[in-house]
UniProtKB/TrEMBL annotation:
<keyword id="KW-1133">Transmembrane helix</keyword>
<feature type="transmembrane region" description="Helical">
    <location>
        <begin position="86"/>
        <end position="106"/>
    </location>
</feature>
<keyword id="KW-0472">Membrane</keyword>
<protein>
    <submittedName>
        <fullName>Uncharacterized protein</fullName>
    </submittedName>
</protein>
<keyword id="KW-0812">Transmembrane</keyword>
<feature type="transmembrane region" description="Helical">
    <location>
        <begin position="39"/>
        <end position="66"/>
    </location>
</feature>
Length: 195
């Protein structure tokens, strides 16, 4: 047990030294994210796949009916369009095309929601995973043209749906992911809002 604790402490020390060298200082504050929207999105996507996969068969029947209504087989005189099995192959292809598109959109949304937001001195750093690496975006908070919007209050405090949005001329430049406004996050918010 002592060896495991020693190994864990060495790992934590290594990560701390790595982050200090990455940020250039040990004085930084990280906004603690709310994982609930991401988890709900993953559960909703998985349940969509689980519950819709058995009904792919009906999609093939719909394609067969639709071609029959348009009377494409009579006009074009293509005999293999009268066989139902070809429409089932088409329906499987359409289902996996839609599923792949949905997975790409969900992954983009998750990468937008799960940005690591760190306040270093008077700069806001956002770190997100991009492909096989990380993408770092630095924003100076001293710029006069930026306007800050803080979405909070009511039920959004209880569900952790608070966000900070920075805009310039009405166009959103960057925003923080969803977070709870408690504990360390409250201190970071007060520091950003200068109150």
């Amino acid at each position: 047990m002592k060896q495991l604790q020693k190994l864990l402490s060495k790992w934590k020390e290594y990560k701390f030294k790595k982050e200090v060298s990455y940020f250039g200082t040990s004085l930084y504050d990280e906004l603690q994210l709310n994982p609930l929207p991401s988890l709900l999105l993953i559960i909703a996507t998985a349940s969509f796949f689980y519950f819709s996969l058995p009904y792919v068969y009906y999609l093939g029947n719909f394609f067969f009916w639709f071609v029959g209504v348009l009377e494409i087989t009579k006009v074009l005189k293509i005999p293999f369009l009268d066989e139902l099995r070809y429409y089932h192959y088409l329906s499987v292809f359409v289902y996996f095309y839609i599923s792949t598109s949905l997975l790409i959109d969900v992954s983009r949304l998750l990468s937008k929601w799960n940005k690591r937001t760190v306040l270093v001195k008077n700069e806001l750093w956002q770190i997100c995973h991009s492909g096989f690496g990380k993408k770092l975006s630095q924003y100076s908070l001293d710029t006069k043209e930026l306007s800050l919007t803080y979405e909070h209050g009511g039920l959004s405090d209880y569900f952790g749906l608070n966000r900070l949005i920075w805009q310039k001329d009405g166009i959103e430049l960057f925003s923080s992911p969803y977070f709870f406004p408690y504990r360390k996050n409250k201190m970071i918010i007060n520091r950003i809002l200068k109150r």
